Amino acid sequence: MKEQLMPCSSVAVMDTLLAVTGGAIWGGCIGPRNASKQGLTGTARAFFLAKSVGKHGFICGATVGAYSATRCGIQRYRGKNDLHPSQRARLGASVKLPYFILRRVMNALIAGAVAGAAVAAGAGSRSWIQVAGAAALFSAISTASDYSKMKVLKRVLNRLLEAVLKIEMKRVQLLP
Fold first, then answer.
1. What pLDDT, on a 0 to 100 scale, did the predictor assign at position 1?
2. Most confidently modeled range among 78-92, 121-135, 150-164
């Protein structure tokens, strides 16, 4: 039975809304400090704070939206077209976890590069060096983030497996 997956547009919208909220909060926190540095008071300060909230929310939302949509699309494409089931069976069970980790990290690597390049190009950068630098930076950050999540997940699963094995060993020893 094929599992039901959430559409990429829904994933992108949900992640974008979360990032817009975070960016708006960041803009609301850093705006008063920047307004004080500029010596703004009254309505000028209020407009500056509103602009800061909107700007930071938009930048964070656009960045995360581009990354999330790209990553979801790549995951869907690579999940269907990576290896044929007969090739997976030939590789054996011992290769499943590293292959899964590699595929997940590869999706983040590619999506980070695409999102970084899109954000740099959208920001008006005309220099290909800056676009390539942003792509490399986003790619490295997203890959490190995904890899660290996988390491934590692997540790949690190993501990869970150890606990289950201990319980099973005690149960087997109790039986005659």
1. 38
2. 121-135
Q: Provide the Cα torsion 32, 37, 42, 47; round to 10°.
A: -60
Exposed, middle or buried: residue 31 (CB in 10 Å: 0-12, 13-18, 19+)? buried
Residues 41-60: tens digit of each pLDDT: 999 999 999 999 999 999 88
Distance of CA 51 to CAs 29, 33, 54, 128, Å? Answer: 13, 14, 5, 29
Q: Give the contacts of 51 (CB within 8 A, at least 6 positions apart).
A: none
Determine the longest span between alpha carbons in the chain, in angstroms.
82
**pLDDT tens digits along 4-39:** 567 878 888 888 998 899 989 999 999 999 999 999
For residues 102 and 134, give the distance between their C-alpha atoms in angstroms, rounded to a whole number.
23
Residue 43 neighbours by CB distance under 10 Å: 8
How crowded is residue 45: how many other Cβ atoms within 10 Å of its Cβ? Answer: 16
pTM given for the model: 0.64
Residue 38 near residue 48, CB atoms below 8 Å: yes
Determine the distance from the C-alpha atom of residue 47 to the mean position of all C-alpha atoms in its chain, rounded to a whole number: 32
The tokens 């077209």 sit on which residue?
A: 81
